[in-house]
Amino acid sequence: MTGVKTNERPGTRAVAKYIRISPYKVREVLDLIRGQHVQRAAEILKFSERDAAIVVGKLLASAVANAENNDGIDPEELYVSACFADEGTTIKRFRPRARGRAGRIRKRTCHITIIVSRMPDDQLARFRTKQAAEQAARRARRVAGGRAGGAGASGSEQGGRGGRFRRTRRGGEAEPTPVTGETEAELDEEIEDEELAEDDALVEAEAIEAEASDDIDDSDESADAADTEDEEQ
Question: Which of 1, 101, 120, 123 is deepest in the core (most CB within 10 A)?
C-alpha cells in the first residue's frame, strides 16, 4: 500500500519556496526537529550552528502562528509531525577556465515544508507531567539557593563574608549589607510559599499521570473486549 501523499498529510503547514540553500543541507537540520514539541524544536534551532537553522526557525514560527490563528490550536499542544525539503530550480552559472573552457557552477534551491499537529492525548499528558516535574525541580533548586543565601546573610550579620554585598560610591569595594529580622522573616515566608507551590505542582503532576494511565488502561480493556467478541463470533 502507498503511504499518505505529501500534500494530503494532516496538520497545519507553512511552506517556503525557492530558498537559496541546498536541500541536502536543509534536510540535516530538519532531521533534528522532526517529531519534537514546537518549543523544544525552537530551542534546537536557536542553538544550531548551521545557517539553514535560521530559515527553518522562521518557517516553524510561521507554522505555529498559522495553527494558532487559523485553526485555533493552543501552541503548547503542537509538535512537528512532518517536515521535508524538496529540490527546487537549479540556477546555472559559468566561470572561465583554462584553454577557453567554462566551468559550470550550480546554485541549488529548495522548497521547505513544515507541518505541525496537535499531540495525542496520552503523549500530551506525558509531556505535561514531565514539564511539571522539571518545574518542580527548578523550584527546589531555587529554594535551596534561597536557603543558602539566607544562611550567608545571617553569617554576614556576624561579620562573615557569606552575606549579600553592595557597592559603595567612593572606593567601589564590596561591604556586607546588614540583614534585619524583617528581611529574614520575609525570606522564610518566601521559602515556605515556594515549598507549598512545589508540593501543589507535584500533586498535580501525579494526578495528570494517574489520569493518563487510567485512560490507557480503559482503551486496552476496550480493545481486549472487542477481540474477545470477534473470537466468539
Answer: 123
